[in-house]
């Protein structure tokens, strides 16, 4: 069975290291391996920081901590070598990104390298958001991108902020990324079930997004965020060749702007659902279960993207759907 991988990212000072310490030291009965790089705010364990490019240490509760100075792929292979040799044991992996890091290259590692793809499976991207400083952090595109890539958003330091401000932040995060569930983490403590087995990269018909209209108006920020969620939908059966052309052109022109995307599609002449999802220009698709009797056969695509020309893309999608 492939080893599930959780990618942990988030704003500087949001509490990633505190959360990692909790994950490593809690008596949860899991055998976790954590890859931590040298740019984090504070090391998990100062003993791990040395001149070696990769150091691995087994902790008292059986978890494994890996400190890297350099290439992630090298660390991933080293862990597998030691696992296969029986030197260490773990059944889940958590990778911490630096506070200023783009999580895309980390996610792409598990799509591009064939051997790593067989041995590991990307389970989810978790982003910590510092509620006390989110307004400042979200002025940076990279912070918005970290939110956009996420399968789950963890709010820290909510006790330092008025409830109304927390609610406003929740609404803003939902506009940026409506796929990600939002949870509160208190001083690094959270039920690990909220972080593990997210299945954010599984090919399944669960879009992970509430597509129903909100019951009350949402106040948009004075300066619109660059990253936002875009939803395309149609009840018309889609021609698979026209769909392929639409997606190829979209990825060719805007692939670098498409942080995360997923779709459940009704294909003309086919009783099964077609599901697809991707990160930037890398995506996969597969046939899923048949449409249930009486189920509305609506095609829905959800894109979380950086400054897409929404009107142009909607027009292209409608033309494709019209046949």
Automatic annotation (TrEMBL):
Any one of the GO CC terms: cytoplasm
Family membership noted in the UniProt record: Belongs to the SIMIBI class G3E GTPase family. ZNG1 subfamily.
NCBIfam families on file: PRK11537.1
Role noted for this protein: Zinc chaperone that directly transfers zinc cofactor to target proteins, thereby activating them. Zinc is transferred from the CXCC motif in the GTPase domain to the zinc binding site in target proteins in a process requiring GTP hydrolysis.
Keywords: Chaperone, Hydrolase, Nucleotide-binding
Domain CobW C-terminal: 227-321
Catalysis performed (reactions): GTP + H2O = GDP + phosphate + H(+)
Underlying gene: zinU
A single GO molecular function term of this UniProt record: hydrolase activity
PANTHER family with a match to the protein in the record: COBW DOMAIN-CONTAINING PROTEIN, COBW-RELATED
Protein name: P-loop guanosine triphosphatase-dependent zinc chaperone
